[in-house]
Amino acid sequence: MNHRRAPEGTPDILKATDAADTRQAKADQHAKLSEKLKSAEMKQWILSRVIGPGVVDLSNLNDDPWLKEQGIVPPGHRNAPDNSGAVFWKLLDTVVQKENKQNIYTLSLANNDFHHLRSLNRLPYSLPHLRALDLSNNPVRTFGELDVLLAQGEKKGKATAGIGSLKSLVELKLSGCAFREKTISQPKGDETYQHEILRRFPGLLILDGVNLNRIVFAIPRKPKIQHTDDERKRMSSRPFTFPVDVQPGFIDSDIVRSFVMSFCAKYFPIFDSDRGALLPAYAPTATISVSANTLISRSLQAQEVARSRSSRPNPVPFEPWTNLPSRNFFRGANSVETRMKTLKSPTDQAELLRWWRAVPQTKHPLEDPGKWCIDAWVLDGEGVETKLCAMIQGEFQEMPSGTYRSFSRTFILADAPQGSAANAAGWPAVVLSDTMIVTSYLSSGAYDNRRSIAAYGVTIVPPTPVSPGANATVGAPPNQDMLVEQMRQRTGMNVQFATMCLAQNGWDFEVALKNFEEIKATIPAEAYQ
C-alpha cells in the first residue's frame, strides 16, 4: 500500500480512506508485534543480536531477514507502530538483562533510518546502565531530538535527574546524522556541535570515536534504600542532632558588615527608583546579568507558600524576565552567542540603560530586615585591594502588578578608588560583578528567626575541633597547601579543583600544569568560581 501524501486535488473522501488504511496498517503491526513478544523465536532473535558480554547490535534492522519474514516493522520504519521502540527496549531488558542476568552496556542503533528519535523515549528506563550508544548514519534532523534521552530533571538543569536518565553514558556516536553533518560544515561548526552535545550529556568522554580529553569529576550516587515500616519507626524515635542551628545570615567580620550594609542601604532604593543613577557604582569592566528560574519549587517551603497564596496578588507571567534575554543556560541562552548577549557592561552605557528599562520595575521591602538574608566575606586581596563577595537573598514586588518574587543576588565588591566616579558619587564600594537570579515567590521562611530547628526538638551538637593536619590528603606532600595555592594562581581555578588537578597527577606540579594547559578548554566553568 502506498502511504505517501495524496496528490493535490485528491477528493477528501479518498484522503480519509488512505488515512484510515494507514492507521489500520499500524494497528495490524502493533497486534503482530504483540503476538511475538513471548515467543521463543523472538527471544532467540534478541539473543542472536548479543555480540558480546553486555554488547547488543541492533543496527540495520530494516534489512534484517527474520524481521522481514515475520512481517515485524522495527523502530525507525515509517510504518512502525508508535510503541515499537518501547517494545524492543523492553524485550532487551527482559530477555538479556533479567533472564540472562547480563546488564547491557553498549548498544548500536546505527543505519535504522531514524528521522526522529521519539521511539527512543523509553530507552533510558529499560537500559539505564548504557555506557556507549551508536546512533550513526540516521537522518535525524535536529539536536533537539536527543532530548528524548534525557530525564525530566536533566532537561531542567538538575544534576540529580532520577530515573529515565542515561547517567552512565560516556560514549556517543552520531557520525552521519543529518544535524551533525550540517552543523560541522558551518564556520566554527565543530565547536557548536560539541557544545550542543556536551550540554546534554556532560559526562561524555568519547564523541564520534574521538577522545575528548576532559577532566570529569564523578558525582557519587548512593543507591536508594527502601526501609520497612518498623525501620522507619525506629529511625524516627531516635533523637536528631545537627551541628549548628539555622542562621539568618553569615558575615565574617564587623568591618565587612559595615561595608556591605552601607552599600545595600544605598543601592536597593536607587535600583527601585532610578537605575540610571547606579551607573557610577559599577566598574567600567563590570559584568551584569539576570537569570529567571521559572521552575516551580517542590520544597516544603514552597508548599507553605502555596497555602498562603490567596493573601498575595495573583502572579503574572515570567516573560518580561525571560525575554531580556535571561541568562538561563537551559531556557533560551543555549548558544555561545546568546550567552554573550546576556552579559551587560557599563562600557556601553546606552545599551545598559536600555536593558535596565526592560528589566521589570521592583519594590524591595526596605523597611523590614526580616525579609533579607545577607552572606558576605572577604574573597581575596588586602587593604585597598580587598574584594568582597556579598550574596543577598530576599523578595520584592514586581510593579505595577504587585506580584511577589524571590531573588538571589551576588555582588563582587571592591573599595571605591579615590577620584573614581563611584567615590565621587558617594558609593562605599565599586561593583565588579552583579548576578541576579529571579524565582517564583518562596517567602523568607527559610532564613528568618522562625526557622530555628532547635525549637522543634533538634539537639544542636557543635562539631569536635579537628587537629592540625587531620584533613591532609592521603599521599599528598607536606607542602600541599603551597602547591595548591601556586596551582590556583597559575590557572585561576578554585581551591577544590586545583587540589583535584594536583591529586590526579600525583602531586607533580609541572605534570599537573601541563595537563591543565592541554585540556583547559574543556574544564567546566565552576572550576573558576
TrEMBL record:
- The protein's superkingdom reads Eukaryota
Please identify the protein, giving its name as recorded.
mRNA export factor MEX67
What does the sequence similarity comment in the record state about its family?
Belongs to the NXF family.
InterPro entries per record:
Leu-rich_rpt (IPR001611), LRR_dom_sf (IPR032675), NTF2-like_dom_sf (IPR032710), NTF2_dom (IPR002075), Nuclear_transport_factor_2_euk (IPR018222), NXF_fam (IPR030217), TAP_C_dom (IPR005637), UBA-like_sf (IPR009060)
Query: Where in this chain does the record put each TAP-C domain?
Result: 478-529
Q: Where in the cell is it found?
A: Nucleus
UniProt lists the gene as: MEX67
Predominant location: nucleus
Q: Name one GO cellular component term.
A: nuclear RNA export factor complex
Keyword terms, alphabetized:
Leucine-rich repeat, mRNA transport, Nucleus, Repeat, Transport
